[in-house]
Amino acid sequence: MTDPRRLVPRTDTVLACPELVQAQRRLGRDLVKAAVVVAQQRVRDGQIAPDDVVAQVLAALPPTASSSRRVLNATGIIVHTNLGRAPLSPAALDAVAEAGGYTDVEFDLTTGHRARRGEGTLAALTEAVPAAGAVHVVNNNAAALLLTALELAQGKEIVLSRGELVEIGDGFRIPELLMSAGARLREVGTTNRTNVRDYAEAIGPGTGFVLKVHPSNFRVTGFTAAPDIAELTGFGVPLVADIGSGLLTAHPALPDEPDADSALRAGANLVTASGDKLLGGPQAGLMFGDAGLIERLRRNPAARALRVDKLTLAALEASVRGPVTPVRAALDVSPDDLAERAAKLAAGLAGFGARAVESVAEVGGGGAPGVPLPSAAVSLPRRFAELLRAGTPAVVGRVERDRCLLDLRAITPEQDAELDQAVRRCAS
Ligand SMILES: *Cc1c(COP(=O)(O)O)cnc(C)c1O
What we know:
Elements: H1 11-15, H2 18-27, H3 29-44, H4 53-60, E1 71-73, E2 77-79, H5 90-99, E3 107-108, E4 113-114, H6 119-128, E5 134-138, H7 141-153, E6 157-161, E7 167-169, E8 172-173, H8 174-179, E9 184-188, H9 196-202, E10 207-213, E11 239-244, H10 260-265, E12 270-274, E13 285-289, H11 291-299, H12 303-306, H13 310-321, H14 326-332, H15 335-348, E14 355-364, E15 373-381, H16 384-389, E16 394-396, E17 398-400, E18 403-407, H17 416-427
Parallel strand pairs: 1-16, 2-14, 6-9, 6-10, 10-11, 11-12
Antiparallel strand pairs: 3-4, 5-13, 7-8, 12-13, 14-15, 15-18, 17-18
The structure holds pyridoxal-5'-phosphate (PLP).
Enzyme class: transferase
InterPro entries: PyrdxlP-dep_Trfase (IPR015424), PyrdxlP-dep_Trfase_major (IPR015421), SelA-like (IPR018319), SelA_trans (IPR004534), SelA_trans_N_dom (IPR025862)
Pathway: Aminoacyl-tRNA biosynthesis; selenocysteinyl-tRNA(Sec) biosynthesis; selenocysteinyl-tRNA(Sec) from L-seryl-tRNA(Sec) (bacterial route): step 1/1
């Protein structure tokens, strides 16, 4: 009778205890039951006492019913594609929660009739980019390019420079994406140098449009040349600029990064960009242009397959209209503030081998390649890297010269205490 294995509490009894009834409301019965089964087995194996089953289950339950885990991004890469690119602002998260139920995304509450989908979001984007006559939003920038190719260049040629045949990531390449829309590519110039005459000679009756692609994740230096947008106007064919990063207007700290408003002013007929890079919003493809062209894109049959959901529209509007986004805050934070925060954290964690060090952060695949952002980090013994990744929330740092660096560039000041706690939990 003293054998604990004979005292394993019954599943129904455990699930009926108030804390776990509460947990089932939040997570659903299956997830909680799975944790109970694991805890029961630990009792049978003699690892925990029968009385500890509920506490064990509570400790093992995931924070939400989704398997995606929250990460503190201490890599120093602000727009980190593998970590979900831009983190949403609290204002955008509120907007998502509000739009999550039934919402007026496509309904006019005044008249009681159908309305244009995402009207408020489109208005916010049009106001933010004064040179844009109209805006259309699709799933991502790749979808924006696909829709453009389908509408303007199916069975025709897209003229673009050999220096701008970009691979976006994960093996996806813009040229192949464009060809999948039934367009032919007319590559002009060379890898390092392309001039206006190269474009002029290639443009003809079979041209669908001219495409300028911003090299957002690499840099070509040395003997290079590429015409500006302004030099490519006047050929009588649409000029499309894929600016990549999604800056709506110029950012003083990133002078070489193109922005939608300037590109339109320079003469582009259509500008495409991502919503979750420097704009700091949700994944989306933004298309800015004159009203006639945007209407054609909106009416293309494929537009329906590429459209965004109400959650994206809500988050996007709040990111544009609301307070400064986390990405923008991370770009604009002063290196002195970062150094001060790193010093304070390292002093508190000195017992674990922490010290404050200078660091170099970057925007990431989302833009401004090769632009160093001075930063500060907490340096820890290397073994912390793996331990921190396993924690809740997970912390992802950077391993450099056999040390684990926690760069503060993409960590908000509010998250410093969480970072401190995460390190302490690893050490215990
Ligand atoms: C990131 C990027 C893309 C792809 O954008 P997604 O929003 O990830 O689809 C396309 N073009 C350029 C220049 C980019 O930088």
